[in-house]
Amino acid sequence: MPAMDILYTVSGFAVGVIVGLTGVGGGSLMTPLLVLVFGVPPATAVGTDLLYAALTKAGGTVAHGNKGHIDWRITGRLALGSIPAAAITLYVLSQLPKSNNVIGALISHGLGFALVLTAVAILFGRKLRDYAAKHDDSSLRQQHLGKITVAVGVVLGVLVTISSVGAGALGVAALFFLYPKLPTIRIVGSDIAHAVPLTLVAGLGHWLLGGVDWALLGALLLGSLPGIWLGTQVSAKIPEHVLRRVLASVLVIIGGKLIIA
Asked: How far apart are CA 237 and CA 229, in angstroms?
């Protein structure tokens, strides 16, 4: 195996461990790692990471589905907004000029913005849920809950297609706010189930635009799958709040660098 492929696999393993420990961080860490450390073009990093996410989260969807942890109505509402939004975003990207770095710059800045939002979601997601639970009698939110969920799907569809970030922590934070009485495990399961078709559609779209490196994808999967397993096994031994704060701080730093660049 070439030395670079080994480095990709090791990086995939490291990110996989973090995902297993915290439940978030896949796209949030993988894409900027590929762009900033390995110099992978932003469009290629995003497209490859989207398919990486689709494949790794498919197993989680099956597991959550078998245990009844998925609210398919919520998943369907999110997908109703996100899938068309992803398709439209891909079309817009396909129309941008290829002669200069317009697409790369757009993706880099979009990635930075999504990383900062993800950091906020990681830090304040549970507080947002507590606030929503205390104000769950909001008639406006209850009357338009379905439409608001579809609108959230639209936002996630655009963000995920541009940056590969947002399907995890941002989706969970939004569902915490909209459905504060729903058990956490069903929030997580529904979000993972929605992420699979979204990242698959967006990833295949980037592939059609020439933005997927299949060898890189294989090397990342080779390391990340055992990494996720290991992180899951030891997650109970490390304080979650410490990990989440460290992860959020890293994402803010990386996101700020990408936005300013």
From this structure: 14
The residue ranges of every structural domain in the chain are 3-260
* Residue 167 vs residues 89, 184, 255: alpha-carbon distances, Å: 16, 16, 16
Share of the chain above pLDDT 70, in %: 84
Write the secondary structure of 100-145 as one string of H (helix), E (strand) and C (coil): CCHHHHHHHHHHHHHHHHHHHHHHHHHHHHHHHHHCCCCHHHHHCH
Query: For the packed helices 42-66 and 102-134, what is the interaxial angle rounded to 10 degrees?
Result: 30
0.90 exceeded by the pTM?
A: no
Q: What is the pLDDT of residue 236?
A: 59
Can you read off the two tokens belonging to residue 92? 């817009």
Measure the N-to-C terminal CA separation of the chain; round to a whole number of Å: 34
Supply the pLDDT for residue 174. 85
250 and 243 in contact (C-beta within 8 Å)? no
From the number of C-beta atoms within 10 Å of its C-beta (0-12, 13-18, 19+), residue 226 rates as middle
pLDDT at 48: 92
Q: What is the mean pLDDT of residues 216-225?
A: 88
Q: Which residues contact 147 (CB under 8 A, 6 or more apart)?
A: none
**CA–CA separation, 215 vs 194, rounded Å?**
26
Which residues in 87-120 are b (16+ Cβ under 10 Å) and which e? Answer: eebbeebeeeeeeeeebbebbbbbbbbbbbbbbb
**Local structure of 44: helix, strand or coil:** helix
Taking the CA atoms of the chain, what radius of gyration do you get in angstroms? 18
Q: What is the pLDDT of residues 224-238, one digit of tens each?
A: 888 877 776 775 566
